[in-house]
Amino acid sequence: MQSQYNRRFGVILTALQKMVRRRGTSHIRKIVSKLHPADVAKLLRHFDPDEQWLIFSIIDDAEFAAEILSETDAETSEQLIRHAEPSRIAPILRAMSPDDLTDLLDQLPDDLRQSILSFLHEDLEDVRALMQYGKDTAGGIMTTDYVALNEGMSVEEAIKEVRAAGEKVMVSYIYVVDDANRLRGVVSLRQLILADPTQTLREIMTKEVWKVHVETDQEEVAHLVAHYNILAIPVVDHENRLVGIVTVDDIIDVIHEEASEDLAYLAGSSKPLDTLIDASPIKVSKARLPWLGTALLGGLFTGTIMSFFEGTLEKYIALSVFIPVIMAMGGHHGIQTSTMFIRGLATGEIGDILRPLWKEFLVGCIMGAVCGFGLGVVASLWLGNWLLGVVAGVAMFFALNTSAMMGVLLPAFFNRIGIDPAITAGPFITAIQDATGIIIYLGLATLVLPWIVK
């Protein structure tokens, strides 16, 4: 299915590029008008700023243009808004939902943000309310487009209200509030339709409502929505007053964002991977440099440790043959373990670390025994010294065992002190494991050296 989509997308892109080169505005309009806003936003990434504006400017429908703008990346959004006159872009921005417009403003440079706020100041009451919350919180990702009705309202009256609101708001749930706008319950659309018209919302509502506070982290919100399989979750303030809802489409964006961020950290980058795909070499280098710098310091630390065993290596240089093998195996196993453990932390599947720690200890023993035996046999045959084979095999056993333990303990420690454990999984675990593997291997070799060299 994905390949079919890619083929179709490629055909459309080729046709659009041809029309843009010819400045065939009528044909461009015809192509774009038949596409989904998300596809148009994706297509725009393949054009330079002037061409992007040519395509975007011929869209007459403000709501369609608003949906496209809400789907574009930060760089494309900035270029489109800079190209547009305030009178041209204002209707499009007004057509955006408050939460989408808030997200757009958050990713724009200060000068452009202030410019938009100045010529839209009368239309931004909801947006200003959303902008006061952190962008990674429930308040930052919620929307104010929802249906909330008083608990004393009858079902018949509620249906009329839903019909009126349904033209502007996608209704999945009706939130029931009291006179002070405090959340009291929730009624699904199905419940409302099947209920007796004379009943009140108080009588048919579900009182146990999953809700989040405006300051709840977006990752926790996503976990709740995914875990309880709901289409939206209400957001309340300190006094339990309903201020917004987070819908499932926003949750999908959060999951994608968090996954990209974690993958970027695991890959040794300080920025999400999807923001670096089309970035300049300098921007990509800046994102990777901090983590490569950490790896460099870790390598220098490992080199310093090796210098303490200089005498051992001078007496039996063949020991150095298996250093890269032990370091690489320990590092890879540590990353595998930490990746699985970090995912468990993120999804809430892991609470107490003792069980995964014991499990990874056993896995480390099994993997260490298998790989250690294999390396020991190879080392004995290759170097013609069974004792050296034992040293290499035992070192491999302990290297894989300690890497498994580090893959659990380090992320758990950083998570405990409030630092994203994904940050520690790459260079930090690798550096620590390299040093540990060297100490174990060359330490054992130093102990048995008198029996190796006579």
Structure description:
Helices cover 68% and strands 6% of the residues. The protein has 454 residues and is mainly α. The protein has three domains: 131 residues, MgtE N-terminal domain-like (MgtE N-terminal fold), CATH 1.25.60; 101 residues, CBS-domain, CATH 3.10.580.10; 180 residues, SLC41 divalent cation transporters, integral membrane domain (Tetracycline Repressor, domain 2), CATH 1.10.357. Helix 5 packs across helix 7 and helix 8 packs across helix 10. The chain is globular and about 90 Å long. The chain starts with a helix and ends with a helix.
Short structural description:
This protein is mainly α and 454 residues long.
Task: Offer a few descriptive terms.
454 residues, mainly alpha, MgtE N-terminal fold, CBS-domain, Tetracycline Repressor, domain 2, 3 domains, three-stranded mixed β-sheet, 68% helix, globular
Proportion in helices = 55-70%
Order of helices and strands: HHHHHHHHHHHEHEEHHEHEEHHHHHHHH
Arithmetic mean of pLDDT: 84
Total number of helices: 23
**How large is the share of residues in beta strands?**
5-15%
For this structure, what is the CATH class of the largest domain? Mainly Alpha
SSE layout and pairing:
Layout: H1 2-22, H2 25-33, H3 37-44, H4 49-57, H5 62-71, H6 74-83, H7 86-95, H8 98-106, H9 110-119, H10 125-131, H11 138-141, E1 147-150, H12 155-165, E2 173-177, E3 183-188, H13 189-194, H14 201-204, E4 212-213, H15 218-228, E5 232-236, E6 242-247, H16 248-266, H17 281-307, H18 310-315, H19 323-347, H20 354-383, H21 386-416, H22 422-425, H23 427-452
Parallel strand pairs: 1-2, 4-5
Antiparallel strand pairs: 2-3, 5-6
Helix pairs in contact: 1-2, 3-5, 4-6, 5-7, 8-10, 15-16, 17-23, 19-21, 19-23, 20-21, 21-23
